[in-house]
Amino acid sequence: MKDKSNQSHSAEAETEALVNKNVSRRSFLKGAGLTTAGTVMVSSGVMAFDRPKPQAKKAIGPGATTINLRVNGKTRTIAVEPRTTLATALREHLQLTGTKIVCDRGSCSACTVWLDDQPVNSCLMLAVEVGDSEITTVEGLSKNGQLHPVQEAFIEHDATQCGFCTPGMVMTTAHLLRNNPDPSLEDVRHAVRGNLCRCGTHPNVFKATMAAAKKS
Length: 216
Hints:
alpha+beta
């Protein structure tokens, strides 16, 4: 009888340990599945979670929707489909054709514009994503009819051939000089490393940028 009693207690202990193990495992998996935004609280041995509710976003599309774009210091209102890229919106809706679309996949940087003074590939950004950010295109570099020093230097040093990559090169090098008025040749090379030119004008681009730095 004593052996049977010990066996019964042993079986009960194993069952209880197995249940506790499964509960612990479920609690762990439940906790591990939460994002870091969740708040984990432990109360009376039970894990509770308080997660912020996501804010509902207004659905747009599939048809055209009206948006405002701040471009070159002016606010422009256009109607575009949600799939419209910033590059297409600039060229086809605002007729700012200085921005070129070449590869249309962010590989050549011909479509470079500034978004809040930072260079971006406009072919990779949707127009509806821009929001209140300030956009500067190559047309916006000149002031009061006066070309930007980089634009003048590109002309003087023949840093263009077919011209498709030129606006992107100008925007990139102008941004460099804006943040580094006295760059080294290596600085210029590094800045335009993502701007591709099939015509091979990089040497003249380097010369033009260095010359523009001396005028700035």
